[in-house]
Amino acid sequence: MSTSQPLEVWLRGPLPHVPPLLQPVAHALLQAREELNAALADFPPGLLNERPAGVASVGFHLQHLAGVLNRLLTYARSEPLSESQFADFNAETPPLPLTPDAVTRLVQRFNQEVEAALQQLSITAETSLAEVRGVGRAQVPSTVIGILTHAAEHTTRHLGQLLVTARWVKSLA
């Protein structure tokens, strides 16, 4: 790796205030945040709803990344989803209004959800990681560590799709 490029987050050492067993979750979320912010720094709002070959749009991924992270953290706390969370879920499917600040607002929302996740990780006791939590309307059983790990892997999966789609639609523009 070139010395001009920063190390990936997981290679920069432990994050203060995050329990050791939750470091990989925090590292993955921070890495996703860095990559998303860099990739979308100059992304044209007019391309948010583009779906080449029918793939999910950048706008969908941006909304979904923030929304799912928020919902999964709620499940990990063993709390029910609020009406506003259900409304966010129902609003994830574009088309989005293409305002000049749309990309900035969506990126800021994702950044805020990552910050909230880091705060939650910092106060999550390692002794609670095996506790059972219900997920979704059916309250499918999982564990705190299962939900938090899924939050990280789901974020990285959608980030990858977003990055490819963003490059694709920019190349077509």
Automatic annotation (TrEMBL):
- Supply the name of the protein: Metal-dependent hydrolase
- Lineage, broadest ranks: Bacteria, Pseudomonadati, Bacteroidota, Cytophagia, Cytophagales
Q: Which residues cross the membrane?
A: none
Would the keyword Transcription regulation be found if you checked this record's keyword annotation? no
Q: Which GO molecular function annotations are given, in alphabetical order? A: hydrolase activity
User: Keywords assigned by UniProt?
Assistant: Hydrolase
**SUPFAM superfamilies per UniProt:** DinB/YfiT-like putative metalloenzymes
All residue ranges annotated as the DinB-like domain in the record: 29-162
